[in-house]
Design a protein that fits this description.
Layout lengths: L8 E7 L5 H8 L5 E3 L5 H11 L12 H15 L8 E5 L7 H7 L5 E5 L2 H14 L16 H9 L4 H13 L7 E5 H6 L1 H12 L16 H6 L23 H5 L18 E2 L1
Parallel strand pairs: 1-3, 1-4, 2-3, 4-5, 5-6
Length: 276
């Protein structure tokens, strides 16, 4: 007997690293109707499959666009099988902002929540992790112990770097022809005003409100973080509150990236993307 496909909604969490995506997932997961977590394997699998279905393969002559749609959508339905009982699935990947139009074609009612943060503080946060785990070279830098704070920042910020790619992907989505399924969620709002931030998310995705506990947030991925040599990468503090501290970056390095917060300038928000 053929099992009927599960009836549920898909949404996507994307944006800059170290900008609250894990915290957002931990909060949303308090709702028993929701499933959300750290970055899943689907982003990479999606791009690999898209490449394999292209003219890169001599068999592409046998594949129509309708078949491509079914196969790509099947990745999500296969990964989030019956063992995931949630009615609303949030998949997380920095790739999703760069695939905004594709996701709209596959899931017309889906939304992308892109977490953003002042770029120098993103780089600062990664540098602090590196220094905290000085005896464990991080997978973020291919487990190489060499370099300086300057070379690490430059590697992160370049176009194909961990921060640079994500920043460019958010900009691409922000300035796309139709960003109506995109919302930018500021790290500063999430940590200073979590109730307002989450209310904005619920309103954007069209789900009824849920009473979240912002003083008892739980999430852990300790084994994953240990395996990539970056303990604490996905650590979430139980109580949501802003942490005021000085940057570990040299002042000249910090100042290189202070003007990268395009989402704060209303004149640049040409299509009225929702920014919370």
């Amino acid at each position: 007997m053929t099992q009927e496909p599960l009836q549920r909604s898909f949404h996507f969490i994307s944006g800059l690293p170290r900008s609250g995506s894990t915290l957002l997932s931990a909060i949303l997961s308090q709702n028993p109707r929701f499933h959300a977590g750290m970055s899943s394997p689907l982003g990479g699998s999606f791009d690999t499959m898209l490449s394999q279905l292209s003219d890169h393969s001599e068999f592409s002559v046998f594949i129509s666009n309708d078949q491509r749609r079914r196969i790509l959508k099947g990745l999500f339905e296969g990964y989030y099988g019956p063992e995931f009982s949630a009615e609303v699935i949030f998949d997380t990947s920095r790739i999703w902002c760069a695939r905004l139009e594709l996701l709209r074609q596959l899931f017309p009612r889906s939304k992308i929540i892109a977490c953003v943060r002042h770029v120098p503080w993103v780089i600062d946060s990664i540098e602090r992790l590196v220094r905290r785990n000085i005896f464990q070279p991080s997978g973020i830098f291919d487990y190489k112990p060499g370099g300086t704070v300057y070379s690490r920042a430059e590697g992160l910020a370049k176009g194909d770097g961990m921060v640079g790619f994500a920043h460019n992907a958010v900009k691409q989505a922000f300035y796309s022809d139709d960003p109506s399924n995109l919302m930018l969620l500021r790290f500063e709002t999430l940590t200073n005003e979590p109730a307002r931030a989450i209310a904005g998310v619920y309103a954007f995705i069209g789900e009824p409100a849920y009473s979240h506990d912002f003083n008892n947030v739980q999430y852990e991925a300790d084994e994953f973080d240990r395996r990539i040599g970056t303990p604490g990468l996905h650590t979430v503090r139980p109580k949501i509150e802003p942490v005021v501290r000085a940057s570990v970056l040299p002042p000249d390095l910090f100042s290189r990236y202070v003007n990268d917060t395009f989402w704060l300038d209303p004149a640049l928000n040409l299509r009225n993307v929702k920014v919370v």
